[in-house]
Every structure is written in structure tokens, then in C-alpha cells.
Specification:
single chain; globular; 7-stranded mixed beta sheet
């Protein structure tokens, strides 16, 4: 049974940091790109960051570049998103996503709320 379980969300003030984690099980983790998406109220879902199967390549949406860092541990089957200098516009539900590098398999976590507010 495939599972992606996010943790680490919450309420923080602007300028603070938060670290999201996603624990994966039920599939061959290293064969999948891992992504963090987010969806703000009234907006579509956007990909915030992606990391390759080996962890050697990471890409970010422009608004996150320089503030967010995605990382993965293939021994522990986890992927993390370190978010620094958070802004109110980062407020969203964040989703962990796994997409097979070769193939069509794709999995989603249940999502976790991040709220940035003074």
C-alpha cells in the first residue's frame, strides 16, 4: 500500500522558518522524482520544488528559489522542504507528490496546512 505522509506544517509569523517532511512507503522511492506542491485558497495547485531520484538535481518555482530547499534521504524514504523567510503568500496546503521517473505512476499525500500570518 502506497503512503505519503506529510508532517511539520503549522502557523508561523512572516520571516520565520518551517520544515516539512514526507515519509514514503509502498513503492521504490529512489525511482521517483519527489515534488512539493501547494494550493492556496482560491488558486490552482502549483509545484514548489522537485528533486531527482538521486537527489542530485533540484528545481524550484521562482517565488521559492533562494528561500526553500528540497532534500531527500533514500535510505529513510523521506523528502523534506526547508522553508525560510516565509511570507504570507506562502500560506497554502502543501502536498507531497511522487512521480515515477520512467512510467506513469504518481502518488499524492493528504496535504498539510502552512499558515504564515502576523
Amino acid at each position: 500500500q502506497v503512503q505519503l505522509v506529510e508532517s511539520g506544517g503549522g502557523l508561523v509569523q512572516p520571516g520565520e522558518s518551517l520544515r516539512l517532511s514526507c515519509a514514503a512507503s509502498g513503492f521504490t522511492f529512489s525511482r521517483f522524482y519527489m515534488n512539493w506542491y501547494r494550493q492556496a485558497p482560491g488558486k490552482g495547485r502549483e509545484r514548489v520544488a522537485q528533486i531527482s531520484g538521486t537527489g542530485g538535481t533540484a528545481i524550484y518555482v521562482n517565488s521559492a528559489r533562494g528561500r526553500f530547499t528540497i532534500s531527500r534521504d533514500n535510505d529513510k524514504n523521506t523528502v523534506s522542504l526547508q522553508m525560510n523567510s516565509l511570507k504570507p503568500e506562502d500560506t497554502a496546503v502543501y502536498y507531497c507528490n511522487a512521480k515515477e521517473r520512467i512510467g506513469a505512476a504518481e502518488y499524492w499525500g493528504q496535504g498539510i496546512q502552512v499558515t504564515v500570518s502576523a
